[in-house]
Fold this sequence. Notes:
2 copies of one chain form a homodimer. By secondary structure, chain A is of the alpha/beta class. Chain A is built from 8 helices and 14 strands. The first copy, chain A, has an 8-stranded mixed β-sheet with strand order 5-8-2-1-11-13-14-12, sandwiched between helices. A two-stranded antiparallel ribbon of chain A has the order 3-4. Chain A has a two-stranded antiparallel sheet with strand order 6-7. Chain A is globular and about 50 Å long. Chain A binds chain B through residues 49, 52-53, 72, 75-81, 83-85, 87-89, 91-92, 96-99, 101, 103-106, 135, 138, 142, 144, 151, 153, 155-159, and chain B through 49, 52-53, 72, 75-81, 83-85, 87-89, 91-92, 96-99, 101, 103-106, 135, 138, 142, 144, 151, 153, 155-159.
Amino acid sequence: xxxxxxNVVKIGGNVIDDPSALNDFIGNxxxxxxxxxxxxxxxxxxxxxxxxxxxxxxxxxxRRVTDRxxxxxxxxxxxxxxxxxxxxxxxxxxCDALGFSGAxxxxxxxxxxxxxxxxxxxxxxxxxxxxxxxxxxxxxxSGITPVACAICHDGNGMLLNCNADSVASAVxxxxxxxxxxxxxxxxxxxxxxxxxxDESSLIPLITEENFDSLKADGTIAKGMIPKLHNALDAxxxxxxAVRICKADNLLNEVGTIVKLSSLQ
Amino acid sequence: xxxxxxNVVKIGGNVIDDPSALNDFIGNxxxxxxxxxxxxxxxxxxxxxxxxxxxxxxxxxxRRVTDRxxxxxxxxxxxxxxxxxxxxxxxxxxCDALGFSGAxxxxxxxxxxxxxxxxxxxxxxxxxxxxxxxxxxxxxxSGITPVACAICHDGNGMLLNCNADSVASAVxxxxxxxxxxxxxxxxxxxxxxxxxxDESSLIPLITEENFDSLKADGTIAKGMIPKLHNALDAxxxxxxAVRICKADNLLNEVGTIVKLSSLQ
Lengths: 264, 264
């Protein structure tokens, strides 16, 4: 099969934690045409399991501090329970899904984050050059849909908890080396909104040309800034376009598009 | 790559639960030449996790009764924690391992066992015809080593807990459709022993010709009978030979060989 275009889609906790939203998403994703890759976050399951096991959950700046017990919990939850549930649902919907951690087939190698200034424990960062595009190509050419969680490995036997948005970006940058790639972040809102309470205030296009002024005039709120930096970074490293949209709108051409330039 | 022979190896709890034994096994398995597939059981981790979560473990005739909470626990443990640990260790040892549940790439479809006479819950049985040999061939030809746990799916979104020995047999029967296949069961003893306390009493060859008399005179003990039935069944369905040996002896040509006939 000749690959003309690849879709990389990322879902997070807002879809995973809601059985009906997940079910709808699975149906839509299965119906998406052409080669595609799904990246999923973790949702609340890991925190629930930690609590049941009496392991304290420590978050610093929205990131989970991952000690030895916690890396086991997130590996069980993300790479085991959630990944296999999604894969089994996709298979039932006619999509030939195959689940991955970064260790599987050496799909994504990560580096353990330095313990200074904050020691996050078994947390990793990814260099998109360390995404195994040769493996992705083999799978996509065989009609397989990789489904990746955010547990990666360091190549020396250590599993590392990574940020699922960063995994999605790295995978999309890696798959851009195979064919033009579109990266979609499914989100709880219709996209990037000028007024966070008004779904009709969607900003249709963000580029390097208007990003700074949108930040400067406060249109883009705090939490969106790292997401947009991430998206612009992916666009700068070969991803054709990044879309931020509601999971419901996966198959509709709506949402906020992030590209390097409006001339692209 | 032209595939001439395939090795399928199964390890159980005696290797998985002992970090030093597992480490030694990983080194040996990584050094095994040619296309290969690993199937692993669960060990005590699932029982430990169930206990920590206050879920009662019920075993009937050595099989785990798998209710809704327990299928989550075994999916987390077998397909998550143990599978990813093994995959990361193999990757570190230079073996390009890729972890699987039966749902991944539809590798193994199973049928939920009928609730009569005993309702085991989310427990499945496998028809070797439902092993996806096309996928195995693609992976093995790419130099990938599949690492399968015993969690399978029914194709309709349901995950099922299967017997790891049966998964290994079914996978070996499936891979026999690609190339001649040797199936090795790593075991706590040197092989099938005439005297269970005497490692030197190894029975080197069991075939359909001597199996009945070995059973009749009591040489083969209770627990070995289903294992040998399973092995003879695999041999009858295309597996070239089945070996039962100590994990330490993986790379040595020792242990009990099970074949249909001594003339083979």
